[in-house]
Amino acid sequence: xxxxxxxxxxxxxxxxxxxxxxxxxxxxxxxxxxxxxxxxxxxxxxxxxxxxxxxxxxxxxxxxxxxxxxxxxxxxxxxxxxxxxxxxxxxxxxxxxxxxxxxxxxxxxxxxxxxxxxxxxxxxxxxxxxxxxxxxxxxxxxxxxxxxxxxxxxxxxxxxxxxxxxxxxxxxxxxxxxxxxxxxxxxxxxxxxxxxxxxxxxxxxxxxxxxxxxxxxxxxxxxxxxxxxxxxxxxxxxxxxxxxxxxxxxxxxxxxxxxxxxxxxxxxxxxxxxxxxxxxxxxxxxxxxxxxxxxxxxxxxxxxxxxxxxxxxxxxxxxxxxxxxxxxxxxxxxxxxxxxxxxxxxxxxxxxxxxxxxxxxxxxxxxxxxxxxxxxxxxxxxxxxxxxxxxxxxxxxxxxxxxxxxxxx
Length: 409
Prior knowledge:
This protein is an alpha/beta fold and about 400 residues long. It is built from ten helices and 17 strands. The protein has helices at about 30-40, 45-50, 75-90, 110-120, 280-295, 305-320, 330-340, 340-345, 375-385, 390-395, and strands at about 65-70, 100-105, 125-130, 150-155, 175-180, 180-185, 200-205, 205-210, 210-215, 220-225, 235-240, 245-250, 255, 270-275, 325-330, 355-360, 405-409.
């Protein structure tokens, strides 16, 4: 076994040797291809452990096209690093890596991350999911110019990882970025060189310098933006095939169509819009409002961030005016309810004339006391979130064909 599993596994309590007629080893009679395929569904640590079962199983794990190595399987980063080094050393190098999923929890030496990347890229990796923490301002060698990658999921846990100015990922269809920094002196268009990109997720990323992020891609269909902070940057979309836009966090971004590739009317092609406001953002206001009212203190000046958030969401509803499906969390409805009078007096109501379905996702807010639910729609809204009557009616007053669906979340 070359020491791969030394100090990592214990030999199972199994009887070796010839199987009796009444205890036939049918699993070992399967072909190598079938066994390797089955082993691909379990963590690599467990797959390697099968080498102690018999001589038949000794080297099967070395031909796995899928490697799943997570900190939770080892309990210590040092043990994970040691195991990863051994697996990469003893694995059959002639076998491509189709799927590589590795999660380092806590601090990790940069040389370990670089070794994993070099191995994955040199073995024609197709799907790569990598989570790590390195205080480095560097570009992973060759990663953003890989010709075989179809899916890339990158999580970094430091604020020193700047996203590159350009990519060349011709086969990429799905990309998720967590905790990266976008920043340059010029308008950023980092995704324009991904000719097959269909799904893009930008999660908890910063936009610095110009405070403008341009997502320019002719094939993008699904876009998700997650922002747990109030980041008021400009999001310019040059995405003529975009069908779905999902946002979670605190809406503060100014969204518009590209000024030089497509007109803003391109956003009218979006058919599905999903907005989920951070629960704690709403609950903090409710808690503060309760405390201040008990002390007869005016809460007006504390409402400004929530008014701005409601205004932002209202602008989005005007921009994505042709959606047929709109999904709003109960926390988003609560934001609207705080400033409904101001919206009625200062802004035009949404005109979602093509809206067919309004989906309300009911979530119990952290500060919200539980109430008994009833069957009617208004009672359901009141029972599950403190949303006054009239908020839903305000949103769909220009949507004659809209149906309402209320779901627990």
